[in-house]
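Fold this: MIP18 family-like domain-containing protein
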Amino acid sequence: MVETLQERLGTDRMLSGLRSRFKQMVFTQAAETKPPYSSNSNVETCTISTEKILIENEQFKDIVFGIIRNIKDPEKPSTLEDLNVVYEDGIQVTRNFDNSVFKVLVEFTPTVPHCSLASLIGLCIVVKLQKSIPPQTRFKLRVILKKGSHNTVDEIVKQINDKERVAAAMEIGGLKELVIHYVANIACVVVV
């Protein structure tokens, strides 16, 4: 499938928007100053920090969905979003105890309970996020299948969340080419 110039321009605009939102999210915290201390300022600061963290988590969720929504389905000429394999409500973003690491949970639903390519879809999601999110952004990724959506949910989840298995899969020539083909439908590297 050849991407038209108009589709490419639309993709570039989307990525530009993602880049600017990502820059705002990463760099606005450093520019802010703390209010002077008073008896109520600690409560106020805590509330603002919590609200800010929730907003940043929501922005990061949008970025994650923007990255994975256009992955091609291995069997059909559609994207994972078009087939409702990935969906915004299936992405959760939280933080670790000191707010330094994003914890990203991506849930997806194969099109049929016996989908033989569910592992490949999960691998594509993992690889695309690893390649697209800048290395200075600390995040921990977990990809799961929706409960009851596949006959072998536990085995697939174990396989796609094992870093050594993912690395080994990406060393296999044919499989690596398949993954690159499905995730490379657009250039989706977020530059900060």
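Residues 41-68 form the longest helix (28 residues). The helical segments are 5-31, 41-68, 118-132, 153-160, 163-169, 173-183.
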